[in-house]
Design brief:
This is UPF0098 protein. This protein has 4 helices and 9 strands. The longest helix is centred in the last third of the chain and has 19 residues. The strands form 2 sheets. The chain has a 6-stranded mixed β-sheet with strand order 2-9-8-4-5-7, with no helix packed on it. A 3-stranded antiparallel β-sheet has the order 1-3-6, with no helix packed on it. The protein is α+β, with helices and mostly antiparallel strands.
């Protein structure tokens, strides 16, 4: 349920803009796979806690065309907070105060906390969903993304979202190619799609993402 007064933003990227490299797996050194900074406004009256879900909504899966790949699940965010700073993931206890009660869930790499994108193709969209709930969630120390699409969501009051993209859009990349290379690009994609639909091409998702 959306509410135009309940807004989620980031000071480091625009809605629909590119996700900065330091928040991806392509960053360098300490500036790599940091959880992005987020801010929210207009938290609905009656909100007891906030929950956050970050997922790649263009992630492929061999058994179906698109199945979102979860990068971050966060629950029990106090509504007294106005946002999360950059690099917040796994720092709840260090930051203390209201941050200390926040819980991070298990992403699709079966790890707690945030993990940055490294998609196999350009132009993947990343959805940041913030949920306003009328209760706290008591789910123990381990819980998957399914908690945000489960009966727990009966506590949902409102939601807000923003999107970002990885690298450049594949179509923009194609249009920038010389005509002959563009034809090769298109022929390659047709061949891959044909082999995939014929069952001649199988892909393990972890291998596809190049991540353990």
């Amino acid at each position: 349920m959306a509410n135009e007064n309940f807004r989620l933003v980031s000071p480091d990227f625009d809605n629909g803009g590119r996700l900065p490299r330091k928040y991806t797996a392509d960053g360098q050194g300490a500036l790599k796979e940091l959880s992005p900074p987020l801010e929210w406004y207009g938290v609905p009256y009656g909100t007891k806690s906030l929950a956050l879900l970050v997922q790649d909504i263009d992630a492929p899966k061999p058994s179906s065309p698109l199945v979102p790949w979860v990068h971050w699940v966060v629950i029990n965010i106090p509504p007294s907070l106005k946002g999360l700073p950059a690099g917040f993931s796994r720092m709840e206890q260090v930051l203390g105060g209201d941050y200390a009660v926040i819980q991070e869930g298990v992403n699709d790499w079966k790890m707690h906390g945030y993990r940055g994108p490294k998609p196999p193709t350009h132009g993947h969209r990343y959805q940041f969903m913030l949920y306003a709930l009328n209760d706290w969630l008591d789910l123990g120390k381990k819980y998957p993304k399914s908690i945000l699409v489960s009966p727990q969501m009966l506590h949902l009051l409102w939601s807000a979202e923003i999107h970002t993209v990885s690298k450049v859009n594949d179509m923009a990349y194609r249009l920038a190619l010389p005509m002959e290379l563009a034809r090769i690009h298109d022929a390659f994609h047709v061949l891959m799609l044909t082999n995939y639909e014929a069952g001649m091409l199988t892909v393990d998702r972890k291998t596809l993402y190049g991540r353990p």
